């Protein structure tokens, strides 16, 4: 016998098979599920509505039904355009448990190694090159039982399954799915390395930073646009800000913050020095300028701790320049924060 609760069952089947969904797509699925139930029995008391409150009530009912399974249908705003995205999140103590359905232990270990390099990336770039990602196969203290060819295929799988993003320049960064499903793991493991938006207090891996030395203001692009419409100055230091993200006067957070040489050697937690002795043999060398002392504080804890990442200068190798770097202009120079 068809019941109103069958709408939730159909909706959950559709969501579990898709991963990350836009809010528009999620609402379309909801509407189609209602139509399917009504087609089976038109007397079932259930109807579709564009009212946001009705949608929120439906999401709440979904999550109530998922409580015993340790799942949650959760939303996040896309860091680039601010659009709301939804995904099914595993709330088990092992925050990487959801990866186990698609990957084995060795593959998960490699994924964690790549995520670590993304989060520890210099200059708040929160991204790594293909070479740096492949380096993780043999760069850590414990060698990962993968060939570089296998790792390359695996990276493609991470992107295809929405665990990582790959830019036109071939750089890997965290996807909305990772920021949703792995948030507890990221916050507990990299407490002093992540940065949070001054406005929404969510993790920022793509956005803007105030250019004043020692100012800790960081924002997503969409949060900046909303804030700037009403306020002309930085909320932390009161420096006059430009009207638009693209104007001079702001520093990038994310891939645009990368500088030549930032991928020259891998980073390790708790150490201000990079593991230069573990560089991959085919890693190109670059002239590395002394990077700023990054102050990535966890705003919730307000510990004021910082991670100082200084690199030694290496001889310039003009032939080793990443050919993908030609796609984007060089980012604005960050001021050294002390």
Helix-strand category:
alpha+beta
Text of the CATH class of the largest domain: Mainly Alpha
Taken in chain order, the helices and strands follow as HEHHEEHHHEEHHEEHE
**Integer-rounded radius of gyration:** 22 Å
Lateral strand order in the biggest sheet? 1-3-2
**Which outline best applies?**
globular
CATH second-level architecture of the largest domain: Orthogonal Bundle
The number of domains: 2
Spatial separation of the terminal alpha carbons: 68 Å
Query: Number of DSSP helices?
Result: 9
CATH topology of the largest domain: Arc Repressor Mutant, subunit A
What oligomeric state do the depicted chains represent? Answer: single chain
Per DSSP, what share of the residues sits in E-state strands of 2 or more residues? 5-15%
What is the CATH homologous superfamily assignment of the largest domain? Winged helix-like DNA-binding domain superfamily/Winged helix DNA-binding domain
Q: Give the number of DSSP strands.
A: 8
Task: Specify the helix fraction band.
Answer: 25-40%
| Major pleated sheet | 3 strands, antiparallel
- Average per-residue pLDDT, rounded, comes to 80
In the predicted model, the low-confidence regions spanning at least 5 consecutive residues are: 273-333
């Amino acid at each position: 016998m068809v019941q109103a609760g069958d709408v939730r069952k159909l909706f959950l089947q559709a969501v579990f098979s898709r991963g990350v969904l836009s809010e528009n797509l999620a609402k379309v699925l909801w509407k189609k599920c209602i139509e399917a139930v009504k087609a089976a029995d038109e007397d079932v008391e259930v109807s579709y509505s564009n009212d946001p409150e009705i949608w929120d009530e439906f999401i709440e009912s979904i999550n109530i039904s998922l409580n015993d399974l340790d799942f949650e249908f959760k939303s996040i705003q896309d860091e680039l355009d601010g659009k709301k995205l939804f995904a099914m999140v595993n709330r088990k103590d092992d925050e990487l448990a959801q990866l186990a359905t698609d990957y084995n232990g060795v593959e998960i270990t490699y994924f964690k190694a790549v995520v670590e390099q993304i989060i520890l990336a210099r200059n708040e770039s929160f991204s790594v090159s293909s070479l740096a990602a492949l380096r993780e196969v043999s760069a850590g203290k414990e060698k990962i039982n993968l060939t570089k060819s296998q790792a390359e295929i695996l990276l493609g799988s991470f992107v295809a399954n929405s665990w990582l993003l790959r830019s036109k320049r071939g750089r890997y960064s965290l996807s909305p799915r990772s920021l949703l499903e792995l948030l507890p793991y990221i916050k507990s493991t990299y407490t002093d390395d992540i940065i949070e938006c001054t406005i929404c207090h969510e993790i920022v891996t793509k956005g803007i930073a105030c250019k004043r030395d020692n100012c800790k203001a960081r924002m997503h692009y969409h949060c900046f646009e909303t804030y700037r419409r009403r306020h002309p100055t930085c909320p932390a230091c009161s420096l006059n800000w430009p009207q638009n993200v693209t104007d001079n006067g702001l520093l990038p957070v994310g891939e645009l913050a990368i500088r030549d040489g930032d991928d020259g050697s891998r980073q390790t937690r708790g150490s201000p020095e990079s593991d230069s002795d573990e560089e991959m043999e085919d890693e190109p060398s670059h002239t590395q300028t002394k990077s700023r002392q990054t102050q990535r504080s966890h705003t919730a804890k307000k510990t004021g701790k910082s991670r100082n990442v200084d690199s030694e200068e290496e001889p310039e190798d003009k032939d080793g320049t990443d050919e993908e770097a030609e796609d984007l202009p060089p980012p604005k120079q960050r001021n050294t924060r002390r």
